[in-house]
C-alpha cells in the first residue's frame, strides 16, 4: 500500500502542476465540453458542474457577474445554484440580471428557501412562500427548476419541516401552483439528519450534500451513509465542498479543479457538483475539468488514502483569495 500511495501521489502531483486550481485554463474550452447527467429519476439532463450563486454575487460588479454567468452557459455549464439569503438577496438579483433577454431558458435554475433565517425562524410554510416570491422576483422568472430547503442540520429541524404548517407543505404548494418543478433539501454537517429527511416520506427529487475530495466536514460519512439512501430512492445527488468550503484549499498541490470533479463524479449518482466562480476565467477551467474522465472506484479509494496520508482537510492549505465551492455557505 505504501508503494501504491507514493506512486499515486506522484501521479496526482504531476496532474496538479499541469492544471490550474481554478484559474485561467491552459486549453480552450468548447461549448460542448461539459458533460450532462440524468437528474435522478427524471429524464431531465443537467450539466455535471454547477455555477455557485454566492460567489457570483461576489464578482467585481453586476456586469462582471453577467459576463461570468453567460460565459458559463456558452461553455455548457447550465446548472445554476442560488439561495434566498446570499448577500441579502444580491446574489439572486445579480443572477436574475444575467439571465435577462432570453438567457433564463438556457439554464436549470435552483435556489433555496432559508427557513432557519432570522425573519422566519420557525421554518413554516407561510414564511417559505414569501421567500419564494422574493426569489422569483429577484431572479426575474415565473418558476424555478429546483427549490431546496436550505441547510437541514439536526433531527429537530427535520421534525419541524414535516410538522403541521412546515416548509414541506410549502414545497408541495409551490409545485401545485406551477412555480416550482422539482424539490429537494440540503445539509452540510449531519448525515443522520439527511437520512431522517429521506425516511420522512416526502418524495424529494434532489439532495445537496458534501462530496469532498478533501474529506471536508462530514463528507466521507455523507458518502458512506447518505449516498446509498439517495440511490435507493433514485434521488438526484448534488455535490459540494469539493475544495473544502468557503476558501480554496489544495493540500499542497494534491487537490485541484480536475481532481475535485473527477472525485465527485466517480459516484454515478452525482449528477452535478457545485463550484463557486467569481472570475471570468474560472468558467473555462471548470468546464475543462468537468470533461475529464471520472475516477474509477479503485482510483477513488487510493485518492482517499493519499488525502488521509497528507492530513486531509484538517491540514489543507487555504489560499488567500475569496472562493467557495458549495455555491455559497461560508464554512471552510
Please outline the major beta sheet: 8 strands, parallel, barrel
Task: Give the uncertain stretches in residue-range form.
Answer: 1-5, 11-19, 328-332
The level of helicity is 40-55%
CATH superfamily: NADP-dependent oxidoreductase domain
- What's the structural domain tally? 1
CATH architecture: Alpha-Beta Barrel
CATH topology: TIM Barrel
Question: Strand arrangement, largest sheet?
Answer: 3-4-5-6-7-8-9-11
What distance separates the N and C termini?
30 Å
Alpha-beta content class: alpha/beta
What is the H-and-E element order?
Answer: HEEEHHEHEHEHHEHEHEEHEHHE
Summed over residues and divided by their number, the pLDDT gives a mean of 87
Strand content: 15-25%
Shape: globular
- Rg computed from alpha carbons, rounded to a whole number of angstroms: 19 Å
Helix and strand arrangement:
Blueprint: H1 2-18, E1 36-38, E2 45-47, E3 49-52, H2 53-56, H3 62-75, E4 79-80, H4 90-98, E5 108-113, H5 125-139, E6 144-149, H6 155-162, H7 167-176, E7 180-186, H8 191-199, E8 206-210, H9 219-233, E9 236-240, E10 247-249, H10 257-264, E11 270-276, H11 280-290, H12 297-309, E12 318-322
Parallel strand pairs: 3-4, 3-11, 4-5, 5-6, 6-7, 7-8, 8-9, 9-11
Antiparallel strand pairs: 1-2, 10-12
Structure overview:
It is a single chain. The chain has 332 residues and is of the alpha/beta class. The protein has one domain: NADP-dependent oxidoreductase domain (TIM Barrel). The chain has twelve helices and twelve strands. The strands form three sheets. It has an eight-stranded parallel barrel, surrounded by four helices. Helix 1 packs across helix 12 (297-309) and helix 4 (90-98) crosses helix 5 (125-139).
Amino acid at each position: 500500500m505504501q508503494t501504491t500511495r507514493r506512486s499515486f501521489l506522484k501521479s496526482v502531483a504531476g496532474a496538479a502542476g499541469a492544471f490550474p486550481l481554478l484559474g485561467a485554463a491552459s486549453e480552450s474550452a468548447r461549448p460542448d465540453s461539459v458533460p450532462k447527467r440524468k437528474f435522478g429519476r427524471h429524464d431531465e439532463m443537467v450539466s455535471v458542474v454547477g455555477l455557485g450563486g454566492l460567489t457570483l454575487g461576489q464578482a467585481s460588479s453586476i456586469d462582471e457577474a453577467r459576463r461570468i454567468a453567460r460565459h458559463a452557459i456558452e461553455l455548457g455549464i447550465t446548472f445554476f445554484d442560488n439561495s434566498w439569503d446570499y448577500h441579502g438577496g444580491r446574489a439572486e438579483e445579480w443572477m436574475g440580471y444575467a439571465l435577462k433577454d432570453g438567457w433564463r431558458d438556457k439554464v436549470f435554475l435552483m435556489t433555496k428557501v432559508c427557513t432557519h433565517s432570522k425573519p422566519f425562524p420557525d421554518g413554516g410554510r407561510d414564511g417559505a412562500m414569501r421567500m419564494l416570491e422574493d426569489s422569483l422576483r429577484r431572479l426575474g422568472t415565473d418558476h424555478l427548476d429546483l427549490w431546496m430547503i436550505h441547510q437541514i442540520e439536526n433531527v429537530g429541524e427535520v421534525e419541524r419541516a414535516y410538522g403541521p404548517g412546515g416548509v414541506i407543505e410549502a414545497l408541495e404548494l409551490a409545485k401545485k401552483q406551477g412555480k416550482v418543478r422539482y424539490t429537494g433539501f440540503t445539509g452540510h454537517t449531519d448525515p443522520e439528519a439527511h437520512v431522517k429527511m429521506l425516511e420522512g416520506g416526502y418524495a424529494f427529487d434532489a439532495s445537496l450534500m458534501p462530496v469532498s475530495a478533501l474529506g471536508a466536514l462530514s463528507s466521507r460519512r455523507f458518502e458512506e451513509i447518505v449516498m446509498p439512501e439517495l440511490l435507493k430512492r433514485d434521488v438526484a445527488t448534488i455535490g459540494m465542498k469539493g475544495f473544502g468550503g468557503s476558501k480554496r484549499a489544495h493540500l499542497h498541490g494534491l487537490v485541484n479543479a480536475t481532481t475535485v470533479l473527477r472525485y465527485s463524479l466517480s459516484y454515478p449518482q452525482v449528477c452535478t457538483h457545485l463550484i463557486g466562480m467569481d472570475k471570468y476565467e474560472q468558467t473555462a477551467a471548470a468546464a475543462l475539468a468537468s470533461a475529464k474522465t471520472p475516477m474509477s472506484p479503485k482510483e477513488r479509494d487510493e485518492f482517499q488514502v493519499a488525502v488521509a496520508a497528507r492530513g486531509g482537510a484538517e491540514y489543507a492549505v487555504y489560499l488567500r483569495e475569496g472562493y467557495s465551492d458549495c455555491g455559497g455557505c461560508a464554512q471552510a
